[in-house]
Predict the 3D structure of the following.
Amino acid sequence: MKSELLFEHVGLFVLLVLIVSVVYNGLRRERVSEIVRVGLQRGLFFILVSLIVFGGGGYLLAQWL
Amino acid sequence: MTADGDATIRGGTRAAHAALSPITVFLCVVATWILPGAGHWLLGRRGKALLYFGLIAFAYAFGLWLAAGRNVRLDQDTMDLYFFGESFCGGFTLVAWWLTRGLELAFEQPLLDAGLLFSTVAGLLNLCVMVDVYETARPRPVAAHA
């Protein structure tokens, strides 16, 4: 149950970040393929970094406390 | 198409947009407020228009689905700020508010916060798209480099 909830929230986070990233990276660009490619690249990088920092960091903090 | 040809088309489009009247630009921005992507469509950016419409409409509708239609409301003091964010998707918010105004927060909504987040972010993204429509219609002069 706990892991289900965790995966659900991670999935929502991934989806939201990817949507925001694609729209935001399209603001100064014209070609749709470039917008999607750059948006997904940057969005996935942000997701990876935030999961490592907040997920890993939160887990370590929880162990320590 | 060559780079020169592409630049010519882009320059031509920019020159054509420079001739747009302020009323036309205003109408394009209002069209985006009512329907995400409509302003880009009117300006001839069909691909961007469809992309923006698809993403923003999906985010808004997904938020409504997560919150079971209870995330667009004016009768809760705690949701005023969310409604303000959602209102940048003017057309969607008006329709959603009208269709769901009879629903009450009678039972616990486990994903209400997530639904609020998705629909509010969709509204704020549409605000960025409205600015992009203005920037497309009225491009800023490029700074001359020495």
Summary: Chain B touches chain A through 22 residues (CB under 8 Å). Residues 112-137 of chain B form the longest helix (26 residues). The CA atoms of residues 36 and 69 of chain B lie 20 Å apart.
